[in-house]
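User: I'm putting together a small comparison set for a docking exercise, and I want a reference complex before I start. The sequence is below, and the ligand is adenosine-5'-triphosphate. Could you produce the 3D structure with the ligand included, as structure tokens?
Assistant: Of course. I'll restate your input first, then give the structure tokens for the complex.
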Amino acid sequence: MTRTDSRTALVELSGVSKHYGNVRALEGVSLEVHAGEITCVLGDNGAGKSTLIKIISGLHRHDGGTLALDGEETRLASPREALDRGIATVHQDLAVVALMPVWRNFFLGSEPRKGAGPFKRMDVDRMRRTTRAELLRMGIDLRDVDQPIGTLSGGERQCVAIARAVHFGAKVLVLDEPTAALGVKQSGVVLKYVTAARDQGLGVVLITHNPHHAYLVGDRFVLLKRGTMVGNHTRGEITLDELTSQMAGGDELDDLRHELQGDR
Amino acid sequence: MSATTSDVSDERFLRSSSPLQRLLTRPELGSLVGAIAVFCCFALAADSFLRASSLGTVLYASSTIGIMAVPVALLMIGGEFDLSAGVLVTSSALVSSMFSYRMTANVWVGVGVSLLVTLAVGAFNGIMLARTRLPSFIVTLGTFLMLTGMNLGFTKLISGTVSTRTIADMEGFTTARALFASTLTVGGTHIKVTVLWWLALVALGSWILLRTRAGNWIFAVGGNEQAARAVGVPVARTKTALYMGVALGAWICGQHLLFSYDVVQSGEGVGNELIYIIAAVIGGCLITGGHGSAVGSAVGALIFGMTSKGIVFAEWNPDWFTFFLGAMLLLATLLNTWVRRRAEASK
Ligand SMILES: Nc1ncnc2c1ncn2[C@@H]1O[C@H](COP(=O)(O)OP(=O)(O)OP(=O)(O)O)[C@@H](O)[C@H]1O
Ligand SMILES: [Mg+2]
């Protein structure tokens, strides 16, 4: 299941574990992210997917195993440090500030400024213009970047977050279930931007419940189950059917089928 | 990429807002309507309300609340409360007076020491909040009680009574009074210097909120602290700075108190913290954070000033004052909640 790759990975986790008190959220999980590739993390609810990416994005510290960025072993102290090292994350539950205008959200934490001394201020015009332009590049035509971002649809908000990460020159883009709450069409839009980001040379970590979405775009697949890694494959090694059945826990799915049919 | 433009953008037309709708989402709007209503009400009820001298009185009453309402509003936008703000004003005045009286010949030294002590209390609030992760209601309730006790305790210990000794004969008193408690005459109207302090703070508060990076952080930590932290906003630092802003306001108010009355009653200030919060809320600040404005807080303070003085001019029973204030608070909050629901409609 483990392979060695000639190139250094942008992010490499090996044997990482994480405990919340006495809850074991992760145990011995390994993952590689390469430039221009999409690594998919699959698993059921509570499998530890969000925990895994919170380690990559600097929100949590791992308890065991190693995290290496560009081949250099590190421990990320804060989300700020992760961002400074080129890891941008779009979290499942904490992506945007709903009441704030789109342009303020877009630049939050990295506001461009002009002027000097006490007159140092945000470059509001540039922020508005850039937000409009970057979203337009993603195919979202906002008439008013001043509207609260909470008034955008879920897919649009995801796209804003992705556009922000790409704009700030992230090397690694981490997306936690970007398509979970979306319809078929909007999922398509988001997946398209994920591949667009990959084509620009970013390494992408895509977390999802949906093996179909994963197989559409993924180059590597990491399967988690109750905090442990039950699979780590490259695209060539596995078919969609295998992926689906592994994820659902093949035998369990058969049992379920029997149960459901038995009820008829 | 462009293939998707149409299917995403066609939904946009339904959502694009008219200028009127956008006006409705301004945080100040509700309070502005309220202020005009209150003004008309008292203009009809009391002839004396429209006199120039009354204007000075109303503005003065508004300014003593307004100076604190600005930083309290910023703090509330940042998602926190400060229940110690009312007594901190008194503490600031007491420190200034008693330090000057005991330790030096020049009141300006006391004024400077008071600034440091007051800011330190603000920093204490902020750091406690960040370290303990307790709700700010609890942290600042603790500070409130401790300060109330210290105000009385230290004053009795140092002065022997519940009020401070006079410092009017000390060096620097006249200049300090000019800065904090003088009266200017503008076109026949007597305007207290606190009105200028108030206007300056409103301008500064608006500048910070609307045009600086710090303002962006304030909205963000109040609107969604986790999201703010995840994109690298220094949450603890922002909140501590907000508490120190409240302390700065308390220092200005405290020095005004000292230099206009010369002596300070150590039991004063209790209850004012709620009035500052009420002014901020009437002015459109969401109690849950993330939304509001400095101008709104000024309008809230103005409503407070007009009501408290208008009742006197109209020769009504002042017992009704709090009734008005309460009704205003409820109306303003209802309006604000409605606005927020619209803003978060699709969340
Ligand atoms: N802060 C926390 N404190 C304690 N336990 C936690 C915490 N965060 C997560 N957990 C636990 O860790 C386990 C993994 O959670 P995680 O959020 O990583 O799952 P997930 O795979 O992202 O699930 P979902 O698909 O529902 O998003 C769960 O059992 C959860 O209850
Ligand atoms: Mg999750």
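The pocket of adenosine-5'-triphosphate (ligand 1) is lined by residues A 20, 23, 25, 43, 45-51, 92 (CB under 6 Å). The longest helix of chain B spans residues 235-261.
User: Thanks, that's exactly what I needed.
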